Amino acid sequence: MIRHLLSTADLSRDDATLVLDTAEEMAGLTEGRSVKKLPALRGRTVVNLFFEDSTRTRTSFELAAKRLSADVVNFSAKGSSLSKGESLKDTALTLEAMGADGVVVRHSASGAPYRLATSGWINANVLNAGDGTHEHPTQALLDAFTLRRHLGELAGRHVVIVGDVLHGRVARSNVLLLATLGARVTLVAPPTLLPMGVEQWPCTVSYDLDAVLPDADAVMMLRVQRERMHDAYFPSAREYSRRYGLDARRFARLADDAVVLHPGPMNRGMEITADVADSDRSVIVEQVTNGVYVRMAVLYLMLAGAANDGARDERRSERDEVGGAANDGARDERRSERDQADPSAQEETT
Amino acid sequence: MSRDLSSPREVLDGDDVARALTRMAHEVVERNKGASDLVVLGIPKRGVPLARRLAERITAVEGVEVPVGAIDPTMYRDDLRLRPARALEPTDIPAGGVDDKTVVLVDDVLFSGRTIRAALTALDDIGRPRTVRLVVLVDRGHRQLPIRADHVGKNIPTAMHETVRVLLSDIDGQDAVLLGSTGAETEAEAAP
């Protein structure tokens, strides 16, 4: 399994399938149980580092980590040192000093999780919970999980993704993951809301929603991010919803077993009408439930085993070679303290 | 793995396995004074088909359906942190649950006892059985914890370097128990 989850592009088909299969077991282990708690991450610390507001993703990660018995610490931008201008590096060093094992990070800048993972500031496993307009891997995994539960194996299935691909990190992560899993993806959006270079993504692009719907096994509606756009990408909200919104008329064009997804939060009446969002083929609420299972799976696979510690040791020694001796002295001490702490934690459980 | 088992000796053949299961089914029923309130749970992988076969035999003897399921102890193992994270196997608890039932845990090989310890802890999170009993096809000794089986298909005294491998038709295409002898770390030792 990979050490950091930064992009769905890093996941091989086997990795992705392992995550989805593990999520299935997590669902089986918690659904309908009176004790929704598993011991796999006992003694591990997971930090939710949220530079951008997010209720559902943070709550979902928090719940997932807690169900696996990890200790969870929430850092959010508001009301913390993050809003006082602390740099990413200093925040990272603080987390390292506190002994974080996993850091779930959301940041408005694309690439911030990558920086955190590769800078050598921290030894923790980094999980990208959305970075700028780049990626949101666990959202794509939970979408794939939801699709798989309804459609079976995804190879050869056709998924249509509609909406703001330019600002939406969900679209990129989904396209990459679905392509890895062998599904066919069509993006539908106004030309102004497609990013440069989209023609090199492993998908096809269309501007005509009505034409692609009859052939779709699933439709994923993306949120029109009003806060990100300054009304220049399309003439009016009304025109957008007429051309790219999913209403009852378009819904009727879908195959009988096709499902509708939305990563939330929805703008009812904009990209999706209320009757479609509430129909029995809309799996939007289920996506939220599945998000917890998928995040449990990812946290378990990345943090529960020993590969984690092994990789850390490697990185530690790499850093020892690279880093200057002077400023690393203090860290060495801290490190050895942690080295001593780790085995004792193991003894406790054996 | 296959190289390690280059010259394994067959200690139980398919008929022996079948007879051992039939005998243990009778023992379970006798001990429980019938088949009421029994729940048979197999420990993946090979405990699961063994559990199903045991339940079928109990049904054949007593004429009642016996709930069968699976319990995966992976997340409760004491060596979880010593190795890379492992894929989870299915856990499947029959609809009636385990509260106030007699749970019969079934595994293929009893070795250190650590898997059973983990399964007992896993059971804690599912409910509170009235009794838990343990059925194993092979007891190879070398216990590291105070755990013993209630019903044993075959006691096979082994040395630590030996390997015991159970083959079942559902997974391996044939029923047999093989005793191999190698110095290398093997599957049986890797997952005691």
TrEMBL record, chain A:
<feature type="binding site">
    <location>
        <position position="265"/>
    </location>
    <ligand>
        <name>carbamoyl phosphate</name>
    </ligand>
</feature>
<feature type="binding site">
    <location>
        <position position="223"/>
    </location>
    <ligand>
        <name>L-aspartate</name>
    </ligand>
</feature>
<dbReference type="GO" id="GO:0006207">
    <property type="term" value="P:'de novo' pyrimidine nucleobase biosynthetic process"/>
</dbReference>
<feature type="binding site">
    <location>
        <position position="106"/>
    </location>
    <ligand>
        <name>carbamoyl phosphate</name>
    </ligand>
</feature>
<comment type="subunit">
    <text>Heterododecamer (2C3:3R2) of six catalytic PyrB chains organized as two trimers (C3), and six regulatory PyrI chains organized as three dimers (R2).</text>
</comment>
<dbReference type="InterPro" id="IPR006132">
    <property type="entry name" value="Asp/Orn_carbamoyltranf_P-bd"/>
</dbReference>
<feature type="binding site">
    <location>
        <position position="57"/>
    </location>
    <ligand>
        <name>carbamoyl phosphate</name>
    </ligand>
</feature>
<dbReference type="Pfam" id="PF00185">
    <property type="entry name" value="OTCace"/>
</dbReference>
<feature type="binding site">
    <location>
        <position position="56"/>
    </location>
    <ligand>
        <name>carbamoyl phosphate</name>
    </ligand>
</feature>
<comment type="function">
    <text>Catalyzes the condensation of carbamoyl phosphate and aspartate to form carbamoyl aspartate and inorganic phosphate, the committed step in the de novo pyrimidine nucleotide biosynthesis pathway.</text>
</comment>
<feature type="region of interest" description="Disordered">
    <location>
        <begin position="309"/>
        <end position="350"/>
    </location>
</feature>
<feature type="binding site">
    <location>
        <position position="139"/>
    </location>
    <ligand>
        <name>carbamoyl phosphate</name>
    </ligand>
</feature>
<dbReference type="InterPro" id="IPR006131">
    <property type="entry name" value="Asp_carbamoyltransf_Asp/Orn-bd"/>
</dbReference>
<feature type="compositionally biased region" description="Basic and acidic residues">
    <location>
        <begin position="310"/>
        <end position="322"/>
    </location>
</feature>
<feature type="binding site">
    <location>
        <position position="264"/>
    </location>
    <ligand>
        <name>carbamoyl phosphate</name>
    </ligand>
</feature>
<dbReference type="Pfam" id="PF02729">
    <property type="entry name" value="OTCace_N"/>
</dbReference>
<dbReference type="InterPro" id="IPR036901">
    <property type="entry name" value="Asp/Orn_carbamoylTrfase_sf"/>
</dbReference>
<feature type="binding site">
    <location>
        <position position="169"/>
    </location>
    <ligand>
        <name>L-aspartate</name>
    </ligand>
</feature>
<feature type="binding site">
    <location>
        <position position="84"/>
    </location>
    <ligand>
        <name>L-aspartate</name>
    </ligand>
</feature>
<dbReference type="GO" id="GO:0006520">
    <property type="term" value="P:amino acid metabolic process"/>
</dbReference>
<keyword id="KW-0665">Pyrimidine biosynthesis</keyword>
<dbReference type="InterPro" id="IPR006130">
    <property type="entry name" value="Asp/Orn_carbamoylTrfase"/>
</dbReference>
Automatic annotation (TrEMBL), chain B:
<keyword id="KW-0804">Transcription</keyword>
<dbReference type="InterPro" id="IPR023050">
    <property type="entry name" value="PyrR"/>
</dbReference>
<dbReference type="GO" id="GO:0004845">
    <property type="term" value="F:uracil phosphoribosyltransferase activity"/>
</dbReference>
<comment type="similarity">
    <text>Belongs to the purine/pyrimidine phosphoribosyltransferase family. PyrR subfamily.</text>
</comment>
<dbReference type="InterPro" id="IPR029057">
    <property type="entry name" value="PRTase-like"/>
</dbReference>
<comment type="function">
    <text>Regulates the transcription of the pyrimidine nucleotide (pyr) operon in response to exogenous pyrimidines.</text>
</comment>
<keyword id="KW-0328">Glycosyltransferase</keyword>
<dbReference type="GO" id="GO:0006355">
    <property type="term" value="P:regulation of DNA-templated transcription"/>
</dbReference>
<feature type="short sequence motif" description="PRPP-binding">
    <location>
        <begin position="103"/>
        <end position="115"/>
    </location>
</feature>
<dbReference type="InterPro" id="IPR000836">
    <property type="entry name" value="PRTase_dom"/>
</dbReference>
<dbReference type="Pfam" id="PF00156">
    <property type="entry name" value="Pribosyltran"/>
</dbReference>
<keyword id="KW-0805">Transcription regulation</keyword>
<protein>
    <recommendedName>
        <fullName>Bifunctional protein PyrR</fullName>
        <ecNumber>2.4.2.9</ecNumber>
    </recommendedName>
</protein>
<comment type="function">
    <text>Also displays a weak uracil phosphoribosyltransferase activity which is not physiologically significant.</text>
</comment>
<feature type="domain" description="Phosphoribosyltransferase">
    <location>
        <begin position="10"/>
        <end position="153"/>
    </location>
</feature>
<dbReference type="InterPro" id="IPR050137">
    <property type="entry name" value="PyrR_bifunctional"/>
</dbReference>
<keyword id="KW-0808">Transferase</keyword>
